[in-house]
Design brief:
Elements lengths: L2 H14 L5 H21 L7 H21 L17 H11 L1 H4 L1 H4 L8 H16 L6 H19 L4 H10 L3
Length: 174
């Protein structure tokens, strides 16, 4: 779950649901969790203390439930096919309630980032290539592009000059 996207959604509902505190408090609680992880990492700890986790999750559950009290789930009407249409706020709150473990995974496992911005940044060049250049003409070109991008990013992150890696790779292809 990307909490950066969740924060944006909550900001939208903060503006759309005039005067409601639940989106504001849910945003604040998520940011408190992010800061708790950063503080624990700065202290060299491998986890956030249990009391902080319990407090954050209890506050989160309380505000999710308050939001669902304000925007309750509509029951299925007799004879109705499919699920009943819900308010957008109800859908957001239900998703956050049902996927609570995934939303807060970053709090329990420091290898999990608060957001997926890194993943999005890594996918962006492929999307730009598809949009700006009109895509790939053949599957082989797409595969080659992805292999080169993968090598480039892996070596860049390992502190290896990606240009020298590509020079070496293409020198062997002659």
């Amino acid at each position: 779950m990307c909490n950066a996207h969740l924060l944006r959604e909550l900001r939208y509902f903060e503006e759309a649901t005039d005067g409601h505190r639940w989106p504001i408090r849910l945003r604040e609680i998520l940011v408190e969790g992010k800061k708790a992880v950063e503080a624990a990492q700065a202290e060299g700890l491998s986890k956030v203390d249990a009391a902080t986790i319990r407090s954050l999750l209890a506050d989160y559950d309380r505000w999710i439930n308050l939001g669902l009290w304000v925007f309750p789930e509509r029951p299925k009407e007799p004879g109705q096919k499919g699920r009943p249409k819900q308010e957008p706020a109800t859908n957001l709150l239900r998703r956050r309630r049902d996927f609570r473990t995934e939303v807060w995974h970053f709090l329990h496992d420091f290898r999990v980032p608060f957001d997926n911005n890194l993943a999005e940044r890594l996918v962006r060049p492929v999307k730009v290539k598809l949009k700006m250049a009109g895509g790939f003409r053949a599957l082989g070109g797409a595969e080659a592009f992805c292999i080169i991008r993968s090598l480039w990013e892996t070596h860049r992150r390992q502190g290896i000059n990606p240009f020298s890696t590509l020079r070496t790779a293409f020198a062997g292809a002659e």
